[in-house]
Amino acid sequence: MANIAVQRIKREFKEVLKSEETSKNQIKVDLVDENFTELRGEIAGPPDTPYEGGRYQLEIKIPETYPFNPPKVRFITKIWHPNISSVTGAICLDILKDQWAAAMTLRTVLLSLQALLAAAEPDDPQDAVVANQYKQNPEMFKQTARLWAHVYAGALFYSFKTSKNQIKVDLVDENFTELRGEIAGPPDTPYEGGRYQLEIKIPEIYPFNPPKIQFITKIWHPNISSITGAICLDILKDQWAAAMTLRMVLLSLQALLAAAEPDDPQDAVVANQCKQNPEMFKQTARLWAHVYAGAPVSSPEYTKKIENLCAMGFDRNAVIVALSSKSWDVETATELLLSN
């Protein structure tokens, strides 16, 4: 490397090390090549963005003609951003191209990249797929960018949990084909105090087809199978639209717990009980919320019947299902258990 480039990059390297941003752990630079031809940069995801909490590694190559030509910079850490390739990490930023000036420094570059994370320019994209999602479905873009920040950049969690609605989602498969959702039982319902786990599978043709979702946590609800966790909800079927998001789905499922539709059931036994004996339905749903979803203790009477049949050697889950489906009549529930 030409002597002028070496002297310049050494000075800028020290400038970054002594900078206020480095002391605050916002930017960082390390030497890779003792000839100062390659550096390793790092920037923190800006606050109040999907990248917050993430740490983004950068490959920085210094040309012999530096500082008259810009450094060659790309993201090593994968990131979901309109101006950065989700595949190669290539960056679309004017100061790394025709707007470069010899007076600019490494610190200028790192701070400009951090600013780019906070203010994307989707009309001048590096990644057309990301830019299209950014413009057409901003909420989905934010969720996806946050997920990538969690998986690849070490953000503490991927979640769109809110204290009000108490919903969240976590990654299961790093290929983004499976997620684990969770919703809180709504207040003033039999499900209050419970936490309900959901299996979420993302099809290849998402968002044009809905995600496939089922309850992992057992639940007593007319529109959810008490056996398989399958769900009867229109937006997961023919009423799905590509503009819908995972957040909308989870909120809709939470709303379903608060407003069952027994005339369009997934579980006919539960739906019949809901219509014929609403009070028994509430007590049964409350007991299931306690046993399976961690809600506070419910009916002592129902709990005693469960314990009595379990003492006879029957499986606990089978006992709960039998009593629930037989209106808590011990005799007919016992007959059902024996027949199975």
Automatic annotation (TrEMBL):
Active site feature: C92, C232
Record-linked CDD domains: UBA_II_E2_UBE2K, UBCc_UBE2K
Enzyme class: transferase
Metal-binding is among the record's keywords: no
Biological pathway: Protein modification
InterPro entries for the chain: UBA, UBA-like_sf, UBC, UBE2K_UBA, UBQ-conjugating_AS, UBQ-conjugating_enzyme/RWD
MF terms (GO), sorted A to Z: ATP binding; ubiquitin conjugating enzyme activity
UniProt feature coiled coil, ranges: none
Domain UBC core residues, every copy: 4-154, 145-294
UBA domain ranges (all copies): 300-340
EC number: 2.3.2.23
Keywords attached to this entry: ATP-binding, Nucleotide-binding, Transferase, Ubl conjugation pathway
Record note on quaternary structure: Interacts with RNF138/NARF. Interacts with BRCA1.
Protein family: Belongs to the ubiquitin-conjugating enzyme family.
Name used for this protein in its record: Ubiquitin-conjugating enzyme E2 K
Native source organism of the sequence: Physeter macrocephalus
Record gene name: UBE2K
